[in-house]
Write a structure and sequence with these properties.
Order of helices and strands of chain A: HHEHEHHEHEHHHH
Distance between the termini of chain A: 27 Å
Structural class of chain B: alpha/beta
Largest sheet of chain A: 4 strands, antiparallel
Strand order of the largest sheet of chain B: 6-7-8-3-9-10
Largest interface: A-B, 21 and 27 residues
Strand content of chain B: 15-25%
Number of strands of chain B: 10
Number of strands of chain A: 4
Helix content of chain A: 55-70%
Structural class of chain A: alpha+beta
Largest sheet of chain B: 6 strands, mixed
Oligomer: heterodimer
Radius of gyration of chain B: 18 Å
């Protein structure tokens, strides 16, 4: 039982001063920060995972042969040859229009119809996705194929340039996870201090209860219940504020469809974890309070 | 309560043998304390301030373990007893503190009911005894009053009612008449005497020599500088088997 059952008459042994101390408010702030950090950590981890999956098995072959006709022939031959390999899942030629549209964002030409843009000697690009397996061997075999089909072409593994970004995002996810752990520890420390302060405040009552035959468990249950309820109020408040913030950010995020940002989301498991965190926090608070109280009561005869 | 915890037939309810008590590294507060308390008897504990009366009572009501010696209560050695067994013994002891120690946010009724609630008596079963106790101490009309609104004498009566409501086998009172006028002191002593007649062993610490003379057959223990004198000769250890 997270919040122990205590008869109404026994509850009166402690004066009824709910939400009067700082504990619920401190717990509310910590819970809100914990949930935001956890959401950020989950989003970043999923983003890093998505990027990792996308880049791990993809390379782009860049054919820079000067003659456009030869270049196009080499590109077509390489695409066909690569697609026929058992270690290649897909091989796709990047359309010139796609290249022009991408470059047009930087050169200013609308839809890539700028004459200067059109005059640029654009390379032919082939995106190759490997099937799962031993990457180095697959890359060596592709290199051999490229050397045979399109001599002079460059092979660019995506992991080379997106890898550091993925690692950075993964590091940030770990930092967020570390913050979650630190804030949970801080919350536990707040509960411990609250329990000790409660024992100090009510020492005379506790001593009296001991002397008339109350057991440690009876006394601990009283305080555990009070602390668990106070903490639950704080956790509920912090969770509500965090949920509002996350929903607002989620609504704004849903409009971002391009680039790395589009890969970040919480997913069903992420939301489930976020929903479970407040309940785990209440259980942790009650358990921490109980252990603190029993340890402190043992020091009294 | 197990049969093993009952005093031996004809045995002492409380036995102290060469008991010493010290707080910290200083010398002993109490030294070589040996006495037996017989079931159903009435004892006064006297002595000047600082003689160690309260410390001795603390050991009697299990708020303090001795530094040395043997303490047996209800036939069991309390020195070596595990801490978790103490509540069961404490429920058989009623304590009246010099400063009452009523719980301030509870009414007189709830303060009196406390030992029964702690012992797990249902609300249905405790309302009768609590009502009778309030009537016995003359505070039925003030049952819902909080300690801060009660006079010193009223608080003292509530404290006594709380100490005796669970029908303890041993009643320990520390200067129970120290804060009340002589008339109230005599009334309180009458309460103790009535309880004693019902079989409760009573130990009262007091400075008041006039009080002592009011109880027939009471025995007196006198503490001086942490050592016990035995003016009546009834407290010798080993027990006087003559």
């Amino acid at each position: 039982m997270i919040i122990p059952r205590v008869p109404v008459q026994h509850r009166r042994l402690l004066p009824d001063r709910r939400l009067s101390g700082p504990t619920p408010w401190v717990i509310a702030i910590l819970m809100m920060l914990t949930l935001l950090a956890a959401a950020a950590g989950i989003g970043l981890a999923r983003s890093a995972g998505a990027i990792g999956d996308a880049i791990a098995g993809r390379v782009t072959v860049q054919i820079v042969t000067a003659n456009p006709v030869t270049r196009a022939e080499q590109a077509a031959a390489l695409r066909r040859g690569a697609a026929a390999q058992p270690y290649v899942r897909t091989a796709r030629a990047v359309e010139q229009a796609e290249l022009l549209a991408t470059l047009g964002q930087w050169f200013g030409g609308e839809d890539g119809d700028d004459p200067v843009l059109k005059s640029l000697p654009l390379p032919a690009l082939i995106d190759v996705d490997f099937v799962g397996g031993e990457r180095a061997g697959q890359l060596d075999r592709l290199r051999a194929l490229v050397a045979e089909t399109a001599p002079g072409a460059r092979i660019i593994p995506h992991a080379e340039w997106l890898g550091p970004v993925a690692r950075l995002i993964r590091s940030l996810a770990w930092v967020a996870g570390g913050l979650v752990v630190l804030m949970i520890l801080a919350s536990a420390a707040v509960v411990i201090m609250t329990a000790r302060a409660a024992l100090g405040t009510h020492y005379a009552t506790i001593e009296m209860l001991h002397l008339i035959g109350a057991t440690d468990r009876q006394i601990a249950r009283l305080f555990q219940r009070r602390i668990a309820i106070d903490t639950a109020y704080g956790i509920a408040l912090g969770s509500a504020v965090a949920a509002a913030i996350l929903l607002l950010i989620g609504w704004q995020w849903s409009r971002v469809t391009a680039g790395l940002a589009a890969t970040a989301s919480l997913g069903a498991a992420g939301w489930a974890l976020l929903l479970a965190l407040p309940l785990l926090a209440i259980a942790l608070a009650a358990l921490t309070a109980r252990q603190t109280l029993l340890a402190a009561l043992k020091k009294i005869l | 309560m197990t049969a093993a915890t009952a005093p031996r037939p004809g045995g002492a309810m409380v036995e102290f043998d060469s008991v010493g008590l010290r707080y910290g590294p200083d010398g002993e507060i109490l030294s070589d304390i040996s006495f037996n308390l017989q079931p159903g008897s009435f004892y006064f504990l006297t002595g000047p301030s600082g003689a160690g009366k309260t410390s001795l009572l603390k050991m009697l009501y299990l708020a303090q373990r001795p530094s040395r010696g043997i303490v047996r209560l209800f036939g069991e050695d309390l020195v070596a007893m595990p801490r978790q067994r103490l509540p069961g013994f404490r429920r058989r002891i009623g304590v009246v503190f010099q400063d009452f120690r009523l719980i301030p946010h509870l009414s007189a009724r709830d303060n009196i009911a406390l030992p029964l609630r702690i012992a797990g008596v249902s609300e249905e079963d405790l309302s009768g005894p609590v009502g009778e106790m309030l009537s016995w101490i003359g505070l039925s009309e003030r049952a819902d009053a909080h300690p801060a609104t009660l006079s010193g004498g009223e608080q003292q009566r509530v404290a006594i009612a709380r100490a005796v409501i669970a029908r303890p086998q041993l009643l320990v009172a520390d200067e129970p008449t120290g804060n009340v006028d002589p008339e109230m002191a005599m009334r309180l002593l009458g309460l103790f005497e009535a309880l004693n007649r019902l079989g409760t062993t009573v130990v009262v610490a007091t400075h008041d020599i006039h009080l002592i003379s009011r109880i027939d057959n009471a025995q007196m223990m006198r503490l001086e500088k942490g050592r016990l004198a035995d003016p009546t000769g009834a407290l010798r250890y080993p027990p006087n088997r003559a």
